[in-house]
């Protein structure tokens, strides 16, 4: 396993990491979590991601208990969590100083840890001045509850604003952004964020390298394997935050659209030609981007981790010729129906 600096910071994170979203608390409890976490460690993973919202806090409890029972040395690992959605009350969400401080303390309690290495603002909060958030994140660091702070799914403009506030006040700015990045979703990482890498040394820990499993090729039109994420009752309709009625996005039907399945079908022969599973090709493609510090993977089975970790060996196979073939598939447009011609 390769260990990359997290952006311009001195923190080293494994090129592939592991996150708790969906799986911990919905699909796995402590016993299974322990085996999966150990399997990751055995492959050299040192970075583990979580969030206060995951399984409404249960994911942090599971990760904390599993790590405690595994007896790992705390300094050997990098643990992160994310603050934004902490509960139903008006002050239980967002990036106010109140929720950042209370949310961080509650996360640490659930994790049963004195600190996390990295703490993220899980989304931007248009209702709180960025200065309040920057000051609160610096307070969290000064208190020793986190060593570094970052953002997740912020725009380039919002990150730039956070940095200009930090520089004006002689405070610490965000060192990392956590965006979605995979073969089906790449605009922010490859275009919008470009100035952030050189201007601020922002690192990336990217999420959903397999687009929730779609880029394994296991989902077909109308076919959802019963033991998969999209078969889960609460992820057929993915709950964002705690707002049930208006913010439900049907993750499965949003993901399994014709254009996506067509691209997945087009990528499969490229993986076959290289003699590797599509999951490995997809993860390797993310990790090959030099601006990506760590690709956060998910898995519900040890066999998935065993398979996905081999993606490291696929990176050297991504020659310019292979990348060109991949581009031709992912940039391709669906055929226009005859009636449009
Ligand atoms: N910041 C954010 O807003 C945000 C958002 C989402 C995720 N994240 C972070 O990113 C992490 C990874 O995201 P993700 O879980 O969506 O990653 P992903 O790699 O896109 O999907 C992982 C899921 O795909 C399936 N899978 C993985 N490997 C497979 C294989 N080899 N064969 C077949 N199925 C396989 C498993 O689900 P099943 O077995 O259940 O099908 C697994 O849980 C999360 O845990 C979280 O830490 C952050």
UniProtKB/TrEMBL annotation:
Keywords: Ion channel, Ion transport, NADP, Oxidoreductase, Potassium, Potassium transport, Transport, Voltage-gated channel. The keyword RNA-binding does not apply. Residues 16-329 form the NADP-dependent oxidoreductase domain. GO terms for cellular component: monoatomic ion channel complex. InterPro entries: K_chnl_volt-dep_bsu_KCNAB-rel, NAD(P)_OxRdtase_dom_sf, NADP_OxRdtase_dom. SUPFAM superfamilies: NAD(P)-linked oxidoreductase. GO terms for biological process: monoatomic ion transmembrane transport; potassium ion transport. The keyword Oxidoreductase applies. It comes from the Eukaryota. One of its GO terms (molecular function) is oxidoreductase activity. Probable accessory potassium channel protein which modulates the activity of the pore-forming alpha subunit. Belongs to the shaker potassium channel beta subunit family. Forms heteromultimeric complexes with potassium channel alpha subunits. PANTHER family: HYPERKINETIC, ISOFORM M. This is Probable voltage-gated potassium channel subunit beta. It comes from Trifolium subterraneum (Subterranean clover).
